[in-house]
Write a structure and sequence with these properties.
25% helix; alpha+beta; globular; 10 helices; 6-stranded mixed sheet
């Protein structure tokens, strides 16, 4: 039996428009008397819609459909990610499912207690201390006082704000508030856990703790709805995901497929880019870029490289004129837009020997266990050594999602999960042993 059933769900809002000043009452006294009534009518019109307005096939300028005809079901124990661009309708969907706002049409059926973290510090009273807000928020969300008494030390320890737990919440930073809010929610033991992108407020260490906690929640048979722009977190936590665009579900598939489709912006493969026409390809009269792809050790194209295996970034280009010293150059960029590293071909052939006209294929190899899990983008550049120019420089020409299949995933009992950082190289360690007899006492 499904724990969540969403059927033909739609949510629309009325968009405000400039007041018609010409139609305003000129008499100030009459305008003062009519003001409260007019304000009530405007307020009511924001949330009430006629059947003609809802069924009008032509898009209306004053009505925004945040969600439209969404249907899906979630089984107990599933972790489902909601993926999409800003404004796609993900947060609105969570608010309707959490019963924060009613739907305009359709229905949501829930079979279990829901715990949601959608906005930072939701339900907290700024004048109360962190400890008092734990009891207040937990009680509102359905926990008994004796349950809170039993878990309060665990909640405080998980939040990491024990030093300020008896300080009013109004003096907390946004990161401290979301830590405490998530700690309370995570220990409610709900059947359904609803989480929006608020985890982005926390630091990297706390985000790992949250992901591990959500992973363990899923393993315990509880259901998780997770909204995030961190594609690595979605693929790590969720087996299934929904891609939402313009208020509609355009893809309901495995998390890897949905992330792949989202990153590629609907193209067939974000890890491969090809220019079939020479006239349309980047470059100048001396050289033109023809293709960029991700390959494995055997030279075959791959879509989702694994962190534990080496991968190659292959660049294909055509040299059109003689007399040029050309050297390709690549930069790998993180999802946050940070340049992770760059690499240029420094071989003698590339920098001292002029290239003959023809097609060249250059591959730069990235060793195993260097890139951390997540989405990465590639910038390719061609350097002309003699001319000291760049015939082409293409940003975000391809994208690829590194997958980490290492042993320590979400819910690891003794370690907080995968290694942190934007890269994860495997480094050589040395170890030296001294028996007790050789240890000199001071």
């Amino acid at each position: 039996m499904n724990i969540i059933e969403v059927s033909n769900l739609s949510k629309c809002y009325r968009i405000g428009s400039p007041s018609d000043l010409n139609a305003a009452e000129s008499n100030k006294f009459i305008r003062l008397l009519k003001g409260p009534l007019n304000n009530y009518r405007k307020y009511k019109s924001l949330y009430t819609f006629t059947e003609a307005e809802l069924s009008d096939p032509k898009p209306r300028k004053d009505i925004l459909w945040a969600l439209r005809d969404i249907s899906f079901a979630v089984q107990p124990g599933e972790a489902v990610g909601l993926v999409g661009a800003n404004g796609a309708g993900k947060s609105t969907l969570l608010k309707v499912i959490s019963r924060i706002t009613p739907p305009t049409r359709g229905s949501v059926l829930l079979r279990g207690r829901v715990s949601c973290l959608i906005e930072v510090g939701t339900g907290f009273h700024p004048e109360l201390t962190g400890r008092e807000n734990i009891y207040l928020s937990s009680t509102v969300l359905g926990m008994r006082k004796r349950e809170v008494d039993r878990k309060i030390d665990e909640i405080i320890d998980f939040s990491g704000v024990e030093k300020f737990i008896d300080t009013p919440v109004k003096r907390y930073s946004s990161g401290m508030s979301v830590r405490l809010a998530f700690a309370v929610m995570a220990h409610l033991e709900p059947e359904i856990l609803v989480i929006d992108e608020v985890l982005a407020v926390g630091d990297a260490e706390f985000q790992r703790k949250c992901l591990n906690k959500m992973g363990s929640v899923g393993k315990e048979g509880r259901t998780v709805l997770f909204v995030s722009h961190n594609m690595a977190a979605v693929t790590r936590l969720c087996d299934r995901a929904l891609l939402i665009r313009n208020g509609q579900v355009v893809l309901d598939s495995s998390a890897a497929d949905v992330v792949h489709h989202h990153v590629s912006a609907g193209t067939d493969d974000p890890t491969f880019r090809e220019w079939r026409s020479l006239d349309d390809s980047p470059g100048d009269d001396s050289v033109r870029l023809r293709a960029v792809r991700i390959v494995n050790e055997s030279g075959s194209q791959i879509s989702d490289p694994v962190s534990s295996e080496p991968m190659g970034i292959q660049m294909t280009y055509d040299v059109l004129e003689e007399g040029h010293l050309l050297s390709p150059y690549i930069t790998v960029v993180s999802e946050a837009g940070i340049d992770l590293f760059s690499s240029a071909s420094q071989s003698d052939t590339e920098t001292t020997v002029e290239k003959n006209p023809g097609r060249y294929v250059n591959t730069v190899w990235i060793p195993a266990n260097l890139l951390a899990e997540g989405t990465h983008y590639v910038r390719v550049v061609m350097r002309s050594i003699k001319k000291k120019s760049r015939p082409f420089s293409e940003r975000d020409v391809i994208a690829f999602n590194v997958i980490d299949h290492s042993e320590f995933g979400p819910g690891a009992s003794w370690w907080e999960g995968r290694a942190s950082g934007i890269i994860r190289p495997t480094l050589n360690w040395s170890s030296e042993y001294m028996p007790p007899a050789m240890i000199l006492e001071d």
